[in-house]
Amino acid sequence: MAEDTSYVIVGASLAGAKAAETLRAEGFAGPLVLIGAEDELPYERPPLSKDYLQGKAERDTIYVHPRPWYADNEVDLRLGAAVTGIDRAAHAVTLADGSRVEYGRLLLTTGSAPRRLPVEGAGLDGVLYLRSVDDSDRLRAAFTSGARIAVIGAGWIGLEAAAAARQAGADVTVLEVADLPLLRVLGPEAAEVFAALHRDHGVDLRFGVQVAAIAGEGGRVSGVRLADGSTVAADAVVVGIGIAPNVQLAREAGIDVDNGVRVDAALRSSDPDIYAAGDVASAFHPLLARHIRVEHWANALNQGPAAARAMLGQDVAYDRVPYFYTDQYDLGMEYSGYVEPDGYDRVVFRGDVAGREFIAFWLDGSSRVLAGMNVNVWDVTEPIQALVRAGRPVDPAALADPAADLESLAGS
Ligand SMILES: Cc1cc2nc3c(=O)[nH]c(=O)nc-3n(C[C@H](O)[C@H](O)[C@H](O)COP(=O)(O)OP(=O)(O)OC[C@H]3O[C@@H](n4cnc5c(N)ncnc54)[C@H](O)[C@@H]3O)c2cc1C
User: Radius of gyration over alpha carbons of the chain, in Å?
Assistant: First the structure.
């Protein structure tokens, strides 16, 4: 690619900022434009439901790079600038103000957005979502001692918000349509651990409930009405019912989209000059031999740089084992692997499950490790990922035995 070819990144996100960093680190000296709809510098989202939300981390700790980094590295950072269209024939993107930016190669890191609650009253004041730093500020203001907080959805965002609210002294009720939290991700065996965790911290967990409407008074939320006719009184409602990838630009431009922007293992879309990375990308994963879309921090962190290298013409096959983590109260967890809902045969536990210090392994019918989750046990991510990557049958009894060395099991 000639030096005067412009590289344009849409989405001033973690994936986008990391891609820009890699392009420069790999020696790309041509024009580089990073465009973001938000007014903020690219930032990390995990603290927004953890330390930042709890007031334990300052705002300047969340940024991917400090402000001067962009000018120092000749990255033309355009914030508060939404891209409204991709003109593939002209190799240009259009911005909301009508201006155009030409590209030789384009990277989409547009991420995802929270699904909105589709019920009456969802537009009332005090119905809150958690994606941006401003959202986190709104939650923090609502989480006061004695406030009644209803959380709709017991996924990662809902549970982390519930933990932060409890730690601020709020009374918290979690409303979930399934029979356990995180059921689709973890299955019943391990999901129970998170139910117990929140119950032990005084959260009122209500499973198998359907939200019918948000009740309000004078334009402000007063509670959540359930399908059984009862109402849960609330001063604020946090909605965490999942996210959807921001694929509009790609779809309107006629690029292949399925559950995200469909890309190959080199993160290249159906248009050879357009790439995608992070939450928005549905990428072919060589290890799993299928397309997956991963909505987690490590994927954005690593796919951005991988896409940058591919855009520079390097040979790239993104095959990292999917990884994510959570922190709730005094529980820290890391999860490596990928399991479809109900896509496993059995779960093997090693360690003290009741004491929340253990590793869980998800196995298929041939005793191959599909995923592993370490809870309050550290420095085991590498052997767990090696077990997943090896794809060989492992003796379940040895997996369950804390005396059996994980590295040896992965290597054997
Ligand atoms: C509160 C919270 C807590 C989280 N905690 C964890 C955690 O503990 N562990 C974990 O593994 N993951 C966590 N995640 C997930 C992780 O943060 C995401 O996977 C990651 O942020 C995805 O990064 P991304 O670069 O793909 O896009 P995003 O972070 O979604 O950013 C995309 C950016 O693109 C911009 N954009 C979109 N469309 C346009 C357009 N047309 N023009 C210009 N700009 C556009 C958006 O405004 C946004 O700024 C958390 C997420 C949230 C919200």
Answer: 22
One-letter amino acid of 380: V
Domains of the chain: 7-113+244-311 (3.50.50.60), 127-241 (3.50.50.60), 330-411 (3.30.390.30)
C-alpha–C-alpha distance, residues 50 and 162, integer Å: 10
Look at the chain and count its residues: 412
Q: Using one digit for the tens of pLDDT, what is the confidence trace for 88-111? A: 999 999 999 999 999 999 999 999
Q: Which residues sit with their C-beta closer than 6 Å to ligand 1? A: 10-16, 35-38, 45-46, 48-49, 82-83, 109-112, 130-131, 157, 246, 249, 278-280, 295-298, 300, 324-326
Q: Looking only at Cα atoms, what is the longest distance across the chain?
A: 66
**In terms of Cα–Cα distance, which of 67, 76, 96, 87 is closest to 30?**
76
pLDDT in tens, 146-178: 999 999 999 999 999 999 999 999 999 999 999
* pLDDT given at position 4: 65
* Backbone φ, ψ for residue 46 (5° rounding): -50, -40
State the first-to-last Cα distance of the chain, in angstroms, to the nearest integer: 44
Cα–Cα distance for residue pair 301/351, rounded to 1 Å: 31
**Residue 96 amino acid letter:** A
Specify the ligand 1 atom closest to the Cα of 280: 26
**CA-CA-CA-CA torsion sign (403, 406, 408, 410):** positive
Atom of ligand 1 nearest to the CA of 277: 26
